[in-house]
Amino acid sequence: MKVPILKIPFDSEDAAQICQELTAMLLEGRLAVGRNVEDFEKLFSRFVGSNHALACANGTAALELIFRGLGDDARCSRGSVAIPALTFMATAMAPLAAGYKIILVDNDPVYFQMCPKDLARKIQPDTKAVVLVHLGGFISPNWREIKAIAEQNGSAFIEDAAHAHGAEADGARAGTLGLAGAFSFYPTKVLTTAEGGMVTTSDAELFHKLLSLRQHGQEKPGSNVHQNFGLNQRPSEIHALLGLRMMAKADWILAERRRLASVYDDLLKDLPLAPASPPIGHKPAYYKYMAMLPTGSDRDKIKERLRKEFDVALAGEVYALPGHRQPLWANHPEYLAAPVGPLPNAEDCARRQICLPLWPGMTLEQQEHVRNALAAIL
Asked: Which of 189, 140, 192, 138 is nearest to 162 (CA)?
């Protein structure tokens, strides 16, 4: 039995609808920001529960727009931004591109997310923002504490919600917990538009500023008058068309991911794995089904055996190479607001974490095959 890393949740009905709409779009010549983008933004804003949503070119652009929106001059060094060490490097690249320096914070050992105690030790007077990454589609049970530390320091609380479309904590969805949230629609994500991103916020002033920054700094798009420093970070109508199909089935995708995670929870109870489980009152999006291997396990060999002997492909970790180990920092130490100290939890998590295949449409037989393959190897 073959178990692939993922299957993107478009079906023949989606394909037919998309082709029909795309044909009309091409014949009419409406490819730039237009009706589809606006409809996608409205639906996503409603889905998340924010007052505003701004579509953009990709998830990194969504983050970068937020950081540019926090300051007045995108070309000047603006201070520092605190991010977790255990994240994709886009979380660091976006504030770097907007003129900030980086503080790397260790993670907690259970949910692999930012450790509030380490943040409290490292946050600086010039820290303009604290970024909580909802790793694997889980919202940290410590998110309120992390937000309080940020706000007490005068820092904006920002969500990197690239993994967390529809994730909930205490009745609120990712993208509404802080000043702004950034989402990605890369093909592997919970919802995909091939490429694309979205900023969510309920701050009207920030939203209107980001509208300008997305469009070369024009406060009136197409006016050729540039009031701000901005780049072209617009989405296309084609990507928004894919987004509209995703929104039509977003609730089903979320429910399916949660159901499959529950099946894994039952199947894996007798194995020496430690899956991440949601805190009370939380509903993860399950972008990844994350688990920790026993101490001393060789993850690379386990993954190789799963692939060669059982035809099971494991998804990439989050993340095998933690952010503080990236060679970028040795090549450009000036990008850091402070030297990187020991980050033991990030090291341990990066070394032992695995992510099991989980995608809408996965069968019980495939999940049982994954479980049996793991049992045979472990």
From this structure: 189
